Structures are given as C-alpha cells and as structure tokens.
Amino acid sequence: MENPFCLHYLNDHDAVLRFNGAPTANFQQDVGTKTTIRLMNSQLITTEKRFLKDSLYNEGILIVWDPAVYHSDIPKWYQNPDYNFFNNYKSYRKLNPSQPFYILKPQMPWELWDILQEIAPESIQPNPPSSGMLGIIIMMTLCDRVDIYEFLPSKRKTDVCYYYQKFFDSACTMGAYHPLLYEKNLVKYLNEGTDEDIYLLGKVTLPGFRTIRC
C-alpha cells in the first residue's frame, strides 16, 4: 500500500496483524505503526539470527505455526516438526517471560486445508495453507469484522513479494507451494465489501465467525 492516508486509517483499526518479520519502521506512511499480533512461521524462528535480539519481535502478541504432517497429533508432531523451533522458543520465553507467545495447534492448518479441498472443483496440492490465510482465520475468530489488504490484488498488482524487500516472484500472488488460488477464491466468496474496494484498495471485508449465521 502506498497511500498517505493509510497511516491513520490502519492505526484506527482495533487490532492489526502482521506476518513474520514485516516491519513498520520506515514504512509507517504505507502500513501504519500498530502491531497487535504477529504470526510467524517456524522457519523464521529457527533460522532468523536476530530473532532473540530484535525488538521487532517484542511487540504485540506472538504466534508461531509449523507445517506439521497432515493431521499429525501433537506428540508425533513434537517429535518431527517441519522446523525444530522449540529450542529458540524456549530461549525466547526465558528472555521475555512476560511476552505473550503462543504456538498454533498443528492440526489447525490442515483443518483449514480440508475446507479448501471440500469447496474446490478439483484436487489441490496437499500442502498447508499460507500464513496469510491462517492469519485471516485467526482474526475472524477474534473480531466481528476483518479488513484484509492486498490478499486479493488491487490495480497496483505487481510481482513484489513483500513491501519491505526487493524480491519479485509471481508465486507470491498466484501460489506455488501453498494453495493460494483456492484461498483467494474462498476470501472473494466471503467478501462483504465491493469489487471497487478490491480494485482500488486491494481491500476485502470479511465477517467474524461469531457474526455468521449458517
């Protein structure tokens, strides 16, 4: 997002979720300054050398997820995680005992994948959903309304993967490993906003789970 109005608009939200190592410093005008929740994958916690020292990871509620084997139970997953982040997790908890830091239930990504497969017109790759889609589900659980930005690309559509890195790959938008296309179809179906909001702002508005009546 590159908009001088974004700073105040995003900060006016009751809660803002950010992903992995996404910063606000030097990008405040575009992404605001508020961080309420930070959802990180286990690869970052395992391999990011600055994780235990960088103040970026001391703001907001932290949640880590690890792509477990399909519907693996917790004991089996603990013995064989995709990334063995547990040592760094323990070290972080010792250094920051008052920092809220949670581990996402390993079955949750696959429960979401089952839903994506159920509504897909064909078989999809057996890979876990993206951090983006997991974050959407977390916020739909906590909030009555969820605004999502650039998950469905606006007219500014580019191959830039992250606003804070000069890394280009169309797979970040269309998907390669994660079932992104099916995730986007589901989000578009649930959208309560307008097509104009998507085209101009990349904005989707979803209802929270407690407001949905089936």
UniProtKB/TrEMBL annotation:
What is the protein's major site of localization?
A: Golgi
Give a Gene Ontology cellular component term annotated to this protein.
extracellular region
An example of a GO molecular function for this protein is: beta-galactoside alpha-2,6-sialyltransferase activity
Biological process terms in GO annotation:
protein N-linked glycosylation via asparagine; sialylation
Q: How does it sit in the membrane?
A: Single-pass type II membrane protein
- Per the record, the domain of life is Eukaryota
Q: Which keywords label this protein? A: Disulfide bond, Glycoprotein, Glycosyltransferase, Golgi apparatus, Membrane, Secreted, Signal-anchor, Transferase, Transmembrane, Transmembrane helix
Q: What is its EC number?
A: 2.4.3.1
Query: So, what pathway does this thing act in?
Result: Protein modification; protein glycosylation
Q: Where in the cell is it found?
A: Golgi apparatus, Golgi stack membrane; Secreted
**Which reaction(s) are listed as its catalytic activity?**
a beta-D-galactoside + CMP-N-acetyl-beta-neuraminate = an N-acetyl-alpha-neuraminyl-(2->6)-beta-D-galactosyl derivative + CMP + H(+)
Q: Which family does it belong to?
A: Belongs to the glycosyltransferase 29 family.
PANTHER family per the UniProt record, alphabetical: BETA-GALACTOSIDE ALPHA-2,6-SIALYLTRANSFERASE, BETA-GALACTOSIDE ALPHA-2,6-SIALYLTRANSFERASE 1
Protein name according to UniProt: Beta-galactoside alpha-2,6-sialyltransferase 1
Q: Which organism is it from?
A: Carlito syrichta (Philippine tarsier)
